[in-house]
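Data availability (excerpt). All sequences and predicted token strings are deposited with the supplementary files. A representative entry, 6-phospho-beta-glucosidase, is shown inline so that the format can be inspected without opening the archive.
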Amino acid sequence: MSTNGFRKDFLWGGATAANQYEGAYNEGGKGLSTADMVKFVPKEERTGGHALDVTKEEIKEILEGKSTATFPKRFGTDFYHRYKEDIALLAEMGFKVFRISINWARIFPNGDDTEPNEEGLAFYDKVFDECMKFGIEPLVTLSHYETPLGLTLNYNGWTDRRVIDFFLNYAETVFKRYKDKVKYWLTFNEINIVTMSPYTGAGVLTEDAENSLQLSYQAAHHQFVASALTTKLAREINPKFQIGCMLARSTFYPETNNPEDVLLAQHENQLNLFFTDVHARGEYPSYMNRYFEEKDIHIQKERGDDEILKAYTVDFISFSYYMSLSVSSQENEAKVSGNLFGGVKNEYLETSDWGWQIDPVGLRYTLNDLYSRYQKPLFIVENGLGAYDKVEEDGSIHDDYRIDYLRKHIEQMKEAVKDGVDLLGYTSWGCIDLVSASTSEMSKRYGFVYVDQDDFGNGSLDRSRKDSFYWYKKVIESNGEDLG
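Structure token line:
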């Protein structure tokens, strides 16, 4: 059956991540995380599309105090001290849901500690209590690019199977602590990013590896097992918990009707959807066998792993969607970049200030594709436009470009719901300005709320409402009917 609009209990809101937003990296008993080692590289000095990967030597220099770099993710935009003000702003917009992450190193400073840090647990208690005061449902990511640095240095992150137990200890601790405050949980943010930035996705250092893809997929396997066992644990602690996986989805189109392009697009989509196939279907798809063989990847499994994956699949599938990408079998093509992905330029699409292609119709296609593949509820937990914002003399910020981007995507979400897709909710990315994940910039802004801070950490951190703030308030009030 199709419907004419969003469900009455549709979860409208916004999304953040602790390592980009929270700050207070050395307060409250928090340990260092992998994100605390990521430095800001000005655009003119970058050699690639992002500046995420960190080497063992760089970490050593940073810990010895020899680095002169700045580390914006250590400070974010100070949610740690301003959570009451920020949640009040979200409530003013009418948020039904607020996606945040718990910083693992704030709860277990080294990752493998036997006892949790009570001060860290108490902080998230206060955050969730504040959400509850306004009737805002927290959507909590357990691991959002925030591996405790101790696990990277002592175990090489998720390449070591022992990290599964450390993660389960962490998950059990927060599940029991917040079992009456949080219903919706995500295990790993954009779990497929491990193949593009192993350090970011799994705390893995690869500079000494003969085959970095081997390390990436082995780490992913350990995360799959951890995710399944976490789902089992969640259902035992509170059967009302809803557990989802999270994928960085970039739907790939063939550039032309050339069968080689069509095959290449199919292959890229399979590599992307492999991660949700395991989470939602509970098994490794056969199409990966040839890929693993050709890339000399050998997944080490323990007895019982396959049964664990099959028994504890996720309740819903969440994903980020910023753009689609086109691929070509030809080499001499104009390239475009995106959320750690890359492709060839699609002549039918506009691009953002950062060169990301804008494809609202692609979101409808993606929603239909995912729902027909899995028949599980979907949740869009990241979508938005990174852009330069100008503060006018009177303090106003006219971000019509952001409103236009969001409007067009929400229109296509509604079309997908009419198509029969079961869509739980929508949390636009970076609802309050935060530090960019891929570039550690502040100037690349996504929010409805402006934060006075520049790329180098200068500014008052004062919050102010953009035009999109008032527009999104209308969208939520009308349950997506008033998009004008």
